[in-house]
């Protein structure tokens, strides 16, 4: 359990560091651009962030952190939901600014805190006053203590106001704020940052010209969320560092949710965390899913039960069956021997991962530049394909090899160089030979180049010959000859070499990109129950409701409820019957008819024994049951009371959906 | 007639047949008829047989019957030849031919899907009937043909087409036959048919009625033999139709599985007209007393809960997840439960079994007067022991967040029953709850029931909530949840309103009571008028004057102001600017009130 918390932490660190990196360039720009601040206009940065709103929070937090460290201590983060009016906005702004000031040097300005708490005058003037005193103080008292050198260039550090979600602010508030602050721009160096989710055009549609002319807008584009995702996948999945892996289906589910539902990196990470939790919760052997050093210790301390668990793993069984019989017996009976083997297998698995990643990257280098991307543009697609089954058996792989055989030389050389880099940087020691081989290829290519020079001379000369003969017949003839020779010439050296390279890559793929579930003990590291994940992350509550209503047998395993093809038996729970009956109606439902139909059904069940003597009482019960079922449907939102006709309810759904 | 078939083929796959094909079908049927009037009798029969051979072997018996049919066709076709129709049948025929072969193949394919049992009953009668044909008159033959056409058409569609089209087409076929019989073959039948079909009649009855009406029509003109056969057939269909629910269900399924376009069509059809086609019966005519909440509760308690064992099993399944929930809550996820059935008991069980020793807060979201503010208040007051009020919920939230951030040892479990209830589903309250739940030391577990509940949350809120979805279908009745709902069927207790009415009025002068009484009586007189706007001030003044209750409109106005202050009346301005007075109490309460007043006086 400890391990997973570590993993979670690492995960977030990764993300934050990444985001920070992606924004550092942006920061640089901001600083240099704020230098040429104009007097009348408010400098404004419009930050286009894309639709993945949920990630913005993190982005802004890191952004303000960076700003705070490098440029100015005065930062206010404003959100639309806190600022329904200009007054709230000012309050919020002042509170944040003054508090933040307190945070920076919390020595002597308790009076300011009081000011903000008492909310004496939340006006721009008080803000400027405050700003003046603060800057004066800091200037006079601790000019040397002032932050980094960059901020000392400024006589007065700017006040940065970040509007997190610009679209959701009321236009009026924004306009007022901009107009007011433009009046004070001389005393108060204000910088605005708008977070924009849609498109930069929104500024102009939100603000009239008279207001937007007060702004001096510069546009910044943050990285697209897809790039975030690929970085994360790169860092988390395609490394041998993390022992935990995602199975193909799970990864597919996560990526699908990302691409088709929210484009949110944060949600992707959440899904990943959930995978980790589920894995460690449901798989008893997941204790072995840890760093190799720990794994050894843990294997040694396995209890008998856990050994049995290992023996039960399907992949391990496959492994046992492939062994000779004495070894089989030993594996199945002696715990110690089993532990030894397990260690070895785990080590194998680790090595496999290391090799897998580098070969995968290598293959990606080759396939990502092919026309039409038969194996996908992104490395994640390739990864999925490799996890799914033997990649070399797929059609796409075939076609991509075909295409690779037609690559031109310069591309091929650069690719090979990239591959060499990948292999050199990878930690696996098996790749020495591979690197050598690839280097050899490279030198051969260089040699070829030299030869090609000579050849070209030859061809040029032949060309000249061609030009000499001007009559048509001869020309045709020579052309034909040339063509013939080209066809018969078979392959040039270059082509031969190219074939060799491609074949070599192919052999690498066949060696190293074996899908994970062919590996023994893969269950320890791979999480593969996609259905659970989908159920928890991408649930369909409405479908569940409908199935429960339409086919109660799905949940209540009673033979009486079993039915064929859509019909439900009249023994179903009341609510199901009422629901079924209401499906028949149009927009309005007459309660009396409904009740009658219901009682017909229910009476049919009770059958003949419900005779006249007790009919009155039975009626009451049925009536009560009907009332209950109807009010349950009302709670579920299928119907609502209607005023259009007495004793009618209105349907809120249409048809069977 | 299609009723039993429809029942038998309930498990069949429903295929959508576009209108053109339907047209073709009819054209086929008509074509057969037309051909009879033609001299190329032999050709047509031969073709027909050839087509029939396409039908797969396992339907051999059917083929045989079909041949019988063809034979019958041939016989009756000879009849009209003598009449010497002036039709140049060639064009009609050639028009039909290219489509024929594929048509029959399609039909065969459909037949192949039909299980034998559903087909058998129709055909079992054919042989005996055809056996009679040769001897019978041409009149009878016509009925026979009509019957057969009918059968064929039904074959093609019994599973497929919209009900209304089916009915419509059959009607047309019959009328057509009648006409053609009387008019001695009108050549243009197929075309006319097409034209007629171009204007379909949307107002149709259910299938059962249609089958009845069809057979009735046949009855009218046929002899006894056929009618007896039919009546034998008709009665089961009718009885089936009487035992309403099961056939209704199959129908429902048919409709549901129809193609989307049909749904869309129907949707707009149903929503375009403001006319409501429901019966006018009301509960009052049912001679059944309305149950009030208490008796309802008692009765339901007496009624045994169906499938208790299964429900218990379901619950046990869910309960096994408790430890997992705890783990996931602690890892920063929040849990939302969905699925049919009350999840209150489940959550209660979770609370008693797991959360016994920890600080937790239970929010009954279904309670009609719950607000976010009260939730926040209970957190600040009960959990954080803070006394004092806050200016706004946002401030309060900020305070809570601050406290929880300062003190990491504080932990709070929040259980919310029905997060999607009327009071909590608002955007702002959801925002506040989401922010609350995003705190790492507040663990939220909630349940939702409404079908559209997930629409409450946008991306930002979802990420704040950080939900993990769990399907917990329990099938247990929503006892608590619905007890606060103002159901139509449950008698409004109204006692509260009544007592407040009498209470207020008792403190007023006799004149004032009289004024109110006048208004109440007037309102009760107009209770059947749905568009009753209220009593206009001028009329009211007149009435009050006549009853010697007021002497000037100023006194009346003063009195009305007093009523208004006690919320006894409501005024609204009509379109003509006249002030209308209304007592915002329902009629039954008002009647009770008047009765009580009478007793007092």
TrEMBL record, chain A:
Biological processes annotated in GO: DNA replication initiation
Gene Ontology MF terms in the entry: DNA replication origin binding
Domain Origin recognition complex subunit 3 insertion: 299-530
Top-level taxon of origin: Eukaryota
GO cellular component terms listed in the entry, alphabetical order: DNA replication preinitiation complex; nuclear origin of replication recognition complex; nuclear pre-replicative complex
Origin recognition complex subunit 3 N-terminal domain ranges (all copies): 1-288
InterPro entries xrefs: ORC3, ORC3_ins, ORC3_N, ORC_WH_C
Pfam families per UniProt: ORC3_ins, ORC3_N, WHD_ORC
Swiss-Prot/TrEMBL keywords: DNA replication, DNA-binding, Nucleus, Phosphoprotein
Ranges for domain Origin recognition complex subunit 3 winged helix C-terminal: 542-654
Localization in the cell: Nucleus
Main location: nucleus
Sequence similarity: Belongs to the ORC3 family.
Record function comment: Component of the origin recognition complex (ORC) that binds origins of replication. DNA-binding is ATP-dependent. The specific DNA sequences that define origins of replication have not been identified yet. ORC is required to assemble the pre-replication complex necessary to initiate DNA replication. Binds histone H3 and H4 trimethylation marks H3K9me3, H3K27me3 and H4K20me3.
Assembly with partners or alone: Component of ORC, a complex composed of at least 6 subunits: ORC1, ORC2, ORC3, ORC4, ORC5 and ORC6. ORC is regulated in a cell-cycle dependent manner. It is sequentially assembled at the exit from anaphase of mitosis and disassembled as cells enter S phase.
PANTHER family cross-referenced by the UniProt entry: ORIGIN RECOGNITION COMPLEX SUBUNIT 3 (PTHR12748:SF0)
The protein, known as: Origin recognition complex subunit 3
UniProtKB/TrEMBL annotation, chain B:
InterPro entries: ORC2 (IPR007220), RecA-like_ORC2 (IPR056772), WHD_ORC2 (IPR056773)
Chief location bin: nucleus
GO molecular function: DNA replication origin binding
Pfam families: RecA-like_ORC2, WHD_ORC2
Compartments where found: Nucleus
Biased composition (Basic and acidic residues): 122-131
Record-level GO cellular component terms: nuclear origin of replication recognition complex
PANTHER family recorded: ORIGIN RECOGNITION COMPLEX SUBUNIT 2 (PTHR14052)
Listed name of the protein: Origin recognition complex subunit 2
Organism field: Eudyptes chrysocome
Name of the gene this protein is made from: ORC2
